[in-house]
Amino acid sequence: MRRALELARRGEGYTRPNPMVGAVVVRDGEIIAEGYHARCGGPHAEAEALERAGRAARGADLYVNLEPCVDFPGKKTPSCAERIIAAGIRRVIIATRDPNPLVGGKGVERLRAAGIEVVEGVLAEEARELNEIFFHWIRTGRPFVALKLAMSLDGKIATRTGDSRWITGPEARRRAHELRRRHAAVLVGVNTVLADDPRLTVREVEGPQPLRIVLDSRGRIPLSARVLSGEAGTVIAAGEGMPPDKLEALRDKGAEVWRLPAAAGRVDIAALLARLGERGVDSVLVEGGGEVAWSFLSRGLVHKLYLFYGPVVIGGREAIPAVGGEGVPQLAAAPRFRFGTVERLGADLLVTAYPTGMPSAQISVPER
């Protein structure tokens, strides 16, 4: 099953809005064929593995990290359950069921009705985390929101003079690009554009480019900004206060400009997420800055934290904190998280965390 999960990750960024799935055919304890879902609309992992196994699949075991699919109206690919039955597989080991009501449980039932032994729940937690974006998307119809912060040990993202390059090293920056590949969209506030002029593209790894989103209620983004370069799609989330001439100039640069409700001069991010969901954007990676981070955190709109720590202490009352905003008046009102993983990346650390009350077991899986 660990091998199936490794194979599934090869489809990261390419399968959306489908999940990542890997499959392994095993006979007498030896792997005889493998497959994974490489892209949306392409063959499923089980079909790929069984095609490679050929006649050797008869009497073998199949490991797959997601319940094999069944036929239903509108489905674009053949039923994996029927393919498994026709191949003569003896036993199927799955990590998680598919909670999509069109599929969930029906694949297991079909296999068992055909006399195939089905073992469930192997490395289930790892499998849920792998597809947490997709699971959330089918349950809510809203993007999964991950907040990424790269900071010093004392929680600063820049010195009092604004110097921020580089707090973390090359290994951490590469992982940040992997996160961009994993998410359908990357979001920053206009202050980050003005301060850093980021490109917000995937460069240090192979992968599709995310949609770039800039929160800019009044149209302060310069037309020379690199997010308007055309390397990837760009959405400017604006309020009603954006001047019409700036709106047209941004559209001439190829950007989409969305006029959204605003409160206290700031774009309503809940309205933005709703519109992104309508567009089919299943995930958003929020990269900055501190005011934007607090806007998401304070409204309970963050589903996962990626905290990159560089081995440096910046200090200073006027240094820029990773999270800004007004903060909470009492500790009891602070957003709470549970730690996920801790990983060494060169000299840096990556810590993940999830909001309490949202265990991964509550997220569900959509049609693939």
List keywords for this structure.
single chain; 368 residues; alpha/beta; five-stranded mixed β-sheet; 11 helices; 18 strands; elongated; disordered C terminus
Q: Give the H and E element order.
A: HEEHEHEHEHHEEHEHEEHEEEHEHEEEE
> Hey, roughly how much beta strand do the residues contain?
25-35%
Q: What's the average pLDDT?
A: 92
Q: Record the strand order, biggest sheet.
A: 11-10-9-8-14-6-15-18-17
What summary fits the major beta sheet? 9 strands, mixed
Low-confidence runs of at least 5 consecutive residues: 358-368
What is the total tally of β strands? 18
Evaluate the radius of gyration. 23 Å
What gross morphology would you assign?
Answer: elongated
Compile the SSE list and pairings.
Layout: H1 2-8, E1 22-27, E2 30-36, H2 45-53, E3 61-66, H3 80-87, E4 91-96, H4 106-113, E5 117-119, H5 124-130, H6 132-140, E6 144-151, E7 156-158, H7 170-182, E8 185-189, H8 190-196, E9 211-215, E10 234-238, H9 244-252, E11 256-259, E12 262-263, E13 266-267, H10 269-279, E14 283-288, H11 290-298, E15 304-309, E16 320-321, E17 337-345, E18 348-355
Parallel strand pairs: 3-4, 4-5, 6-14, 6-15, 8-9, 8-14, 9-10, 10-11
Antiparallel strand pairs: 1-2, 1-3, 7-16, 12-13, 15-18, 17-18
Helix pairs in contact: 3-4
